[in-house]
TrEMBL record:
GO terms for biological process: cell division; sister chromatid cohesion. Keywords: Cell cycle, Cell division, Coiled coil, Mitosis, Nucleus. It comes from the Eukaryota. It comes from Myxobolus squamalis. This is Structural maintenance of chromosomes protein 1A (Trinotate prediction). InterPro entries: P-loop_NTPase. The keyword Coiled coil applies.
Length: 300
């Protein structure tokens, strides 16, 4: 039997005898019964030569409502193909998975939902991207919060150390004030000693004046000797002028080396001075801390 013989080209062909152009009946009808949670529903389709009628529980309805009711029971009226013969089954088996999927999509009516599915899939991707971005921002916010908590902890620790340092500095100032009172007494004693030493120095000055008079006569003798030395120096200057060309050649180099040596010496002296000052300050600070600790122990 050919598949084409199971199909009709016009609605009236569904009426008995219609395909012979000699109808025996005025209509054709099909009725289906459905049980839904102990309720029975009766669906009927009546076909005449010119149109068809739809009934749900003996109540006439339009085609749209009738179709919607059927789809509620999983029956899709829009299907165009059915697996009728064994040859159709064998053909489907030989199809690729993609082609079989398309056939079953037509059977189930899900092919009409492909466009909606693609739109939903794109929307899902957008939502996933938004979710991923929100999750990344949340992680970044959590990282930033942990960083802020760490910085706050460090700030609290710094404030504690600063308060402790302020307390120690206050104790040091009190100790210095206490030591100043002792120092004033020592200065008074030193002042008396200074006056005594001053008187001794004045007496020494008088003695030195007497020595100056005697030294002056000696100076006259030395002046004469200096005159002789100046003559000798003039002779030496003459020799120097003779050696001056070679001296001038090396003068710039000697000046540069001398300047560099002087600068290096000054830099070394500055470093040594700073080093000694730092040692003294460290020593004083350590001594002050020891004194503070002793004072705290004595107070406690």
């Amino acid at each position: 039997e050919k598949i084409s013989k199971l199909r009709v080209s016009t609605q009236k062909d569904l009426i008995y005898g219609g395909h012979l152009s000699k109808t025996i009946s005025d209509f054709a009808a099909v009725t289906a019964y459905f049980n839904d949670e102990n309720d029975e529903h009766c669906l009927c389709r009546k076909i005449t030569e010119n149109n068809d009628e739809f009934y749900i529980n003996s109540e006439r309805v339009n085609k749209k409502k009738y179709k919607s009711f059927l789809e509620g029971f999983g029956i899709f009226t829009g299907m165009n193909n059915f697996m009728i013969f064994q040859g159709d089954i064998e053909k489907i088996v030989s199809e690729t998975s993609k082609e079989r999927t398309q056939i079953f999509e037509k059977f189930s009516g899900s092919d009409k939902l492909i466009k909606k599915y693609d739109i939903s899939q794109k929307q899902l991707k957008i939502e996933m991207d938004i979710f991923t971005q929100a999750l990344r921002k949340k992680r970044e916010a959590l990282t930033e919060r942990r960083k802020l908590d760490f910085e706050k902890h460090q700030a609290d620790k710094y404030n504690q150390l600063r308060n402790k340092l302020t307390s120690l500095q206050r104790d040091i100032v009190l100790l210095k004030l206490h030591s100043l009172n002792i120092t004033v007494d020592n200065l008074n004693e030193s002042h008396d000693k200074f006056n005594e030493e001053k008187n001794n120095i004045l007496n020494n000055i008088c003695t030195k004046k007497d020595l100056y008079a005697s030294e002056k006569s000696e100076f006259s003798k030395l002046f004469r000797e200096i005159s002789l030395l100046e003559k000798h120096i003039s002779d030496i200057d003459l020799k120097i002028k003779q050696l001056k060309p070679s001296y001038e050649a090396n003068k710039n180099k000697v000046t540069y080396l001398d300047t560099k040596i002087q600068n290096d010496r000054k830099l070394l002296e500055r470093f040594n001075s700073n080093y000694e000052k730092s040692k003294i300050q460290i020593s004083e600070f350590e001594q002050s801390i020891k004194e503070v600790e002793k004072l705290i122990i004595s107070i406690g």
